[in-house]
Amino acid sequence: MGKEKIILTGDRPTGRLHIGHYVGSLKRRVELQNSGLYDKTFIFIADAQALTDNIENPEKVRQNVIEVALDYMAVGLDPTKSTIFIQSQIPELCELTFYYMDLVTVSRLQRNPTVKTEIQMRNFETSIPVGFFTYPISQAADITAFKATTVPVGEDQEPMIEQTREIVRRFNHIYGDTLVEPEILLPDNAACLRLPGTDGKAKMSKSLGNCIYLSDTADEVEKKVKSMYTDPTHLKVSDPGKLEGNTVFTYLDAFCKPEHFGRYLPDYPDLNELKAHYTRGGLGDMKVKKFLAAIMQEELTPIRERRKEFEKDIPAIYEMLRKGCETARATATATLDEVRKAMKINYFDDAELIAEQVKRFGQD
Ligand code: TRP
């Protein structure tokens, strides 16, 4: 039992998924799902976490649950291999969160760098919702309820996994070996670790309007690539160009494979030569953008087409999620039973307890 290899990860349904999600996590998940190396895979839509800073926008979260589910199916997550479910439908997660709250201090939460940045970005100042502040604890519940060993996520989630590991160690130390310490699995390519927005800003975000979505049309992808941020000092084709901070080249680092040259840019043997020419001068942005656009279309077209197919039967997607929730709930319930037992709050399914108390009160 303890040696099972289990993957778990999820996304907040606050928008459609974009290519940052794709290279940062989704693509890897599909590979892991299909690798046969894992005993179980759980993928979930973190609607309850999305509500921690969208409590006045329930409709937004609700709409995006189905968008994310469609994106999942479109990239190749397969409900016959992975359990795909919705966080809020697993009430056991709330109960676990409630117990884990006793294992974490306020100052420890205040030190979480991801939560700190998010609080700043949202201008909460001193009006931070308690649920938002404590979401790292609920994330520990998400992970441990399924005894996940491996959590494939982006770099920004590192503090959450560390927090989870601390909770697991503390729990097991106090109550005996019950929970499993998870490991983070980061993308192995630096460009994939943090794909910038099309405007060159550090992160893709819906509010900045700098995302390429998995569900974008071919035209939208083309337009977004053509207007991408490059090197503002590279004005004439003959000018030497810079690669650092040049979004087009960062995207090429994330998406370009050697075989793309033969297909779309046969004058160059590989990415190094293309970069060298750009740096030297004499290579225009448009030529590089056209190449990138061709690569992006090759990668995104099958995803877009699969999504269109799945969109034709929306009830089937909800049914898939319903079944996923059922399976997930069974697993979470089993873990919760163990947790309650370890914490000695399983009063009614502990035959020995009553016998012990009878003895203690001297009735036999
Ligand atoms: N915090 C993650 C995000 O913002 C979503 C998430 C919630 C998650 N619970 C998780 C990811 C557990 C991995 C494991 O995308």
From TrEMBL:
GO terms (BP aspect): tryptophanyl-tRNA aminoacylation
Gene3D superfamilies (alphabetical): HUPs (3.40.50.620), Tyrosyl-Transfer RNA Synthetase (1.10.240.10)
Molecular-function annotations in GO: ATP binding; tryptophan-tRNA ligase activity
Name of the molecule in the record: Tryptophan--tRNA ligase
EC top class, as a word: ligase
Family statement drawn from the similarity comment of this UniProt entry: Belongs to the class-I aminoacyl-tRNA synthetase family.
Entry GO CC: cytosol
Keywords: Aminoacyl-tRNA synthetase, ATP-binding, Ligase, Nucleotide-binding, Protein biosynthesis
InterPro entries in UniProt: aa-tRNA-synth_I_CS (IPR001412), aa-tRNA-synth_Ic (IPR002305), Rossmann-like_a/b/a_fold (IPR014729), Trp-tRNA-ligase (IPR002306), Trp-tRNA_synthetase (IPR050203)
Superkingdom in the source lineage: Bacteria
The EC number(s) this enzyme carries: 6.1.1.2
One Pfam entry name: tRNA-synt_1b
The keyword Protein biosynthesis is annotated on this UniProt entry: yes
Catalyzed chemical reaction(s): tRNA(Trp) + L-tryptophan + ATP = L-tryptophyl-tRNA(Trp) + AMP + diphosphate + H(+)
Aminoacyl-tRNA synthetase keyword on record: yes
Source organism (scientific name): Phocaeicola sartorii
